[in-house]
Design goal:
483 residues, mainly alpha
């Protein structure tokens, strides 16, 4: 199988999984928001964010480091086995003490009202020591992780719909999210012998993974400061109601990102292997440019689409009590194309080029910006302030990354390739605003109205994008190439 064919195959598998990851929350959110309300969702967000920190400390930077190290082994099974066994041993040695600390936290410090939810998140925390998905991604095998994730997510969805019936059933919602992480990790082990052999590793081989892993942990923990810490702080400062409003607004904006960044997950091992061969420089640059344009095409369409239907999403999709989300949603939607761009520069270029220090600095700057912005905005503006802080934080990360790679990459060409989709998105926004009262007149303010508006916006965006692609795109890109 050719390199590009394999890349396309992996993209299909990973996108399939990410689409499922998108569809399941789309089904559960309107149900859970009505059953648990803003306070219940706020407690979920608060306890999830705390458990997330323990998971991050347990796995360090293995999600990126493990993929990169396995990818460097190529088809050498003996070398791959040695790297896997030593890296996983290092992961277990770090994660088991963290699991013990989390149990102590629950017993000693967890709020009594949250203790059941905190204990159920233990499935997720324990899974951090068992998670070896980085091996499969490193060998560019996406079929196995995708299939097992589909199965476990369906199990989790079943638990949510069957057992989460009243506002007292928050435990069922948490279990439906936490248990699949544990099952995912267990289901990967039966397929291990296809790719590696278990061998004993000396301590010297195990300990060599700690330092480079910690280097990649720095950006992971920095990113978590502006993806989880703000929710914890919002719950403490503004209450669980505001935390619940921001949780679902942020979740709806980040759900499409799962599909967008699926390309980044596939590209990391491919770009690592490609960049390790000096003769593949032009191919790597071409792939990066194509990846950037595809991700901006998707992310800009999603961002403008969310802005266009923010009010009916808050009123109809989320239900009573979530009206303020119509203001928060358009704000957080701005981060979608920003994160897509930083994924290309950071994950798809800087990490494969071993620019770990520069990548770390970019997200550390973002974390510092987020802490300062949260201190300024959360108390007076609540969930709206959290949305503004998130967008400005992601913009800071992208700006710093751009400064580091501006000499190696043609950033001007990338920006130009995305600009037409901004114009198309604005046009879609304008046309949706015009057609919205007409649809309400005939269908009423209902679920049918919401679906119709989404379909109309998608049709407009795709139609004009295809028209642009077939008419003026080659002329515009051609002019930039000549310059």
């Amino acid at each position: 199988m050719s390199s590009r064919s394999k890349l396309v195959k992996n993209m299909v598998w990973n996108t399939t999984y990410q689409v499922l990851s998108l569809l399941i929350p789309l089904l559960t959110i309107p149900y859970v928001s009505r059953v648990l309300g803003t306070d219940g969702v706020g407690v979920y967000s608060y306890t999830y964010s705390i458990a997330n920190y323990f998971v991050l400390f347990a796995t360090l930077g293995m999600a990126q480091y493990g993929v990169r190290e396995i990818a460097k082994c190529g088809n050498n099974r003996e070398r791959r086995s040695k790297v896997f066994c030593s890296a996983w041993a290092a992961q277990v040695l770090v994660s088991l003490p963290i699991v013990c600390v989390y149990i102590l936290y629950i017993i000693a410090f967890s709020n009594r009202d949250f203790i059941v939810s905190s204990f159920l998140w233990l499935f997720w925390v324990v899974s951090s020591s068992l998670d070896i998905s980085w091996l499969y991604f490193g060998v560019e095998e996406f079929a196995v992780p995708t299939v097992r994730s589909v199965i476990t997510k369906l199990v989790g969805t079943f638990i949510i719909f069957v057992f989460c019936r009243t506002s007292d059933d928050l435990w069922a919602y948490v279990l439906g999210i936490s248990l699949p992480f544990f099952l995912n990790a267990l289901m990967l082990f039966p397929f291990l012998n296809r790719y590696v052999d278990f061998i004993s590793c000396p301590w010297a081989e195990i300990k060599r993974h700690f330092v480079p892993n910690l280097r990649l942990f720095a950006p992971v923990i920095a990113i978590s400061l502006y993806s989880s810490f703000d929710k914890i702080l919002l719950g403490l400062v503004s209450g669980m109601n505001e935390a619940g409003l921001f949780e679902y607004s942020d979740k709806v904006a980040r759900m499409p990102l799962a599909v967008v960044t699926a390309l980044g997950t596939v590209m990391l091992p491919h770009m690592t292997e490609s960049m390790s061969c000096s003769s593949n420089g032009k191919e790597s640059e071409s792939l990066l440019q194509s990846s950037f344009e595809i991700m901006q095409f998707i992310s800009l369409g999603l961002a403008f689409g969310i802005v266009a239907v923010a009010k009916p999403i808050a009123d109809i999709y989320f239900g009573p009590g979530f009206g303020k989300c119509s203001i928060v949603l358009p704000i957080v939607a701005i981060m979608i194309p920003i994160i897509a761009a930083s994924n290309v520069l950071g994950v798809q270029y800087m990490l494969p080029k071993n620019m770990d220090k520069q990548y770390t600095k970019s997200v550390v700057f973002g974390a510092i910006a987020n802490i300062l912005l949260c201190c300024l905005l959360l108390k007076p503006y609540g969930s709206i302030g959290a949305g503004i802080a998130t967008v400005l934080t992601e913009l800071t990360v992208l700006f710093v990354q751009g400064c580091y790679v501006k000499k190696q990459l043609n950033l001007c060409r990338m920006v130009v390739s995305a600009f037409p989709y901004v114009i198309i998105g604005v046009l879609m926004l304008f046309l949706v605003a015009i057609i919205s009262p007409v649809i309400i007149m005939y269908l009423g303010y209902s679920w049918v109205y919401l679906f119709s508006l989404i379909l109309f916006g998608a049709f407009i965006y795709l139609s004009f994008s295809v028209l642009y692609y077939k008419t003026v795109r080659f002329l515009v890109i051609g002019d930039v190439r000549e310059k």
